[in-house]
Amino acid sequence: FAFYPAPASSFSNWQAQNPLGGLNGPNDNPESDGYTNLAEYTFNLTPGSGVIALCPVEITHNTVTNQIDLILRRAAVIDDVIITIEALSDLAASPGAWFDLDISPEIGATTNGVQTLTYRHLEQHVALTGGKGFVRIRINLDANHDTIPEATTRTEVWGFTRSTFTAQLQSVSNPYALCPVFTGLIDSVTSGALNVATSVGGDGVSATMLPGTSYYAEIISGDHEGHRFEVNESTSTSTTIAIETSNPASTLTTLPSTLAADRVALRPHRTLASMLPPAKFRATNSQGTADRVLFYSGTSFTYHWLFSNAGNPFWASGGALTNMNSRLMPPGSAVLIHPKVNPASIVSLGIVRANKFACPLKVGTNFIGGGWPLDQSPASRSMNVATGFTGATSATNADRIQLWLGDSIPGGGSYESHYLLKTTTLQRWVRVGDSTLADEMNLPLCKSMRGIYCISRFGKDDYVMPLPWVP
To answer: What is the pTM of this model?
Structure first.
């Protein structure tokens, strides 16, 4: 695994220690990872390598206080940077509505020159009390201490969403991404693997992957932005990421040579237990009374139920009591959750994508979530005739969306259907049964943290949702 370098005492000293072929300015990023040189100096990351030893910024849910905290890991000895938390209550309001969040940190231990700062209870700010919020870190370089920055950089955006499920069937998805263990340029594609030697630098990409954890590679910029590939952890090397193109969770079935020069993020997968923590739901010893989670295969549902297991509950499959906590929940997954008796509340959090999101659609019914934590319309998801969706004069012959009414109506137990209308004069989404054919193209039908049933007439393997917000 990567180690922290010895910290520099100032950015000018950092530059002297790291010439980086002349690309050592504060806003340079020679390895094309997620952090500029100024950010790498501030967080004491390894220069010239996209390997991340430990995520320098993260939002966490304190299960003791039920509060949302921000953890920041920075070089302890430097005094020529000014660190500011920027916050936002609604992702749709970016980029104009970011504001500075004035919270003093708790200063923790210093290990290997890295100091941990914890900013407690982000929701103490009135703008972040609505059950969701977003933060990022602004770093100003102030080498001469005159408060006028010589350079400014910002981190990725982290977010959180609180969700409460009443005692009825509801859909749920999690669009947040986990912190990558590597980000960088793809040098080339060879023998079923992505060669990332240049961006790895002196570190090793295979050593960043923890045993027993599954990973995927997400293309975050370039020709194939938004696509994702399942990783073969056992055959990856220090400089290559081995890919399983035959895995149904991969959004392309081949590795095109044009992936070269695209940027890739290597991320750990979310699991069923991390998405829907067993401690937050009601466990019993009976399939009939325990809370359940339902998975849709395209034709039918299967379910797991929460087995009490003598006080150590886990999601179980059928009467065999197979522990399904580690079941992978690939990006774009949606499920139905059914609290049987009591409401259940969870906190979803992670990195907000700043890239497109591939979502291949097969012929028939696809139960999908979104790529970002915000409500979206069919227009913002590019669900129109021009992008290859099928419109028709009747719902039977058109692509359709079905919304589970349990998400919005107490006791709701049916679906509301919409279809892509296409006539000689009209192209729009409309609700099935609406004689007025009211235009729903820009209505937020696709709700944040929920799933929709997308019924595709002919399939659309190349469907990629465009980025719906401005970082």
So the answer is: 0.95
